[in-house]
Structures are given as C-alpha cells and as structure tokens.
Amino acid sequence: MNNDYYDNVLIITGGSLDIFWAKSYLSQNKFDYLIAADSGLAYVKELNLCPDFILGDYDSVDLELLNYFKDKDIKTYPKEKDYTDTHLAIITAIKLMPRKITILGGTGTRLDHTLTSIGNLVSLLDLDIEGEIVDPHNKIYLLGEGMTKIIKKEEQYGDYVSFIPLEKSFTISLKGFYYPLDNYLVNSGLSLTQSNEIVDDEAVITVHDGIAIVIEARD
C-alpha cells in the first residue's frame, strides 16, 4: 500500500455474490482501489478485476488462485485470529482514508458474518467515512447521532427503506416518507420503522441520537 489518496474503495469479500448483478453494478459505479478479502478473490477473478491488495488466511482459497495473483500486494493472516477477513479489509481500507468504502459479498448464507460486518461499519462513523454493504436486494449503511441523509426518490436503491437500532434505541426524524416521523424514539425490537416508502421527490433522514441501521431494500 502507498500514500496516494483514494476517494472510493471497494472490498470484495467471500459471502454470496451474484456475478451477473455485480458486473452490472460495477459498470455503473467506479472505484479507485480494490481489496480482495480471502475467498472474495475468486469473485475478483471471475469478474476479471485487478486487485490492489489481497488479504486473508486463505483457508478456503485454492493455491492455484493465489499463484495467479502472486505478483499483487498480498498479506497473509493466521487462521486463528481476532478479526474476520472482512473486518481486516475494512481496517486496511480505513488506512487509505477514503471518502467511501463499499463492500460486495458481505451478505449471504452466514447471517452471523452479515451482522458482524454491519457492526464493523461503526468504525467508519467517527472518521466521517461513508460505508455500505451492497447486494442485489439491499444497500445497508449506518447513520449516527447528528447525521442527516437525503435520498432522491429517483436514485433510491429499492422501493423500501427500513431503520433498525444498532444498539438499544435511536431517535429519528423522517420527511418525504409515507410514514413521517418527528424526533421519534425507536426502541430495539419494534418494527415500526420497517418497510417505509419515499413519496416525495426526495426524503430526509435525521438521526438525533443513537445509531440507525438503514436498509434500502427491494424484492
């Protein structure tokens, strides 16, 4: 890794990744730096991409695949470690101090990995780095205390927007939604903020307290 500035960093990790969708997504979104995390390297090759950095314990990566990328910047971690490969990729991306970090392959059959990866996005809030996990049906990100986000209806990822407390609760205001809210306290375990819809040309989300998991979703 060097000290160049990278605006938008992409992490491809080893969850589930629809290659057909990923090709379309990548054709519409440009990234300055690509980190392949462990078995996400197989997706990188299938997508015919060139990784800038490769990391992981490679317990589920074929040696032939590693040899294919042997001239790239590779870091190997022990299998017995304190962090997931996705978390290590996020830590590595943070060192580049980008404006945004996007994760593909961060969801899938392992719900424990998905939830952990969502939690890992907390580390980006204090650094003012946008972080999101994207798959064919969801765009997932966090909004913390004092943060406001505007979503243009024509640019939203799906038909629905849901809000889930990362911790015990959050206080939120929603404008431009079918179900607006004003400084509303949402406690963990409630489904009040599930599947809202944008009805105006743009919607405004303001989190006054706590941390909200925001999911722009489509069926």
What is the gist of this entry?
The protein contains 6 helices and 11 strands. The protein is of the alpha/beta class and 219 residues long.
Structural summary, described in words:
It contains six helices and eleven strands. By secondary structure, the protein is α/β, with parallel strands linked by helices. Strands 1, 2, 3, 4, 5, 6, 7, 8, 9, 10 and 11 form an eleven-stranded mixed sheet that branches. The protein starts with 7 loop residues before the first strand and ends with a strand.
Q: What spatial form do the alpha-carbon principal axes imply? A: elongated
For the record, give the distance between the C-alpha atoms at the N and C termini, rounded to a whole number. Answer: 39 Å
Number of strands: 11
Taken as a percent bin, the fraction of beta residues is: 35-45%
Q: On the 0-100 scale, what is the average pLDDT?
A: 94
Largest sheet: 11 strands, mixed
What characteristics describe this protein?
219 residues; alpha/beta; eleven-stranded mixed β-sheet; 6 helices
Topology:
Blueprint: E1 8-12, H1 19-28, E2 33-37, H2 40-46, E3 53-56, H3 63-68, E4 74-76, H4 85-94, E5 100-104, H5 111-120, H6 122-125, E6 130-134, E7 138-143, E8 147-152, E9 160-175, E10 181-187, E11 202-217
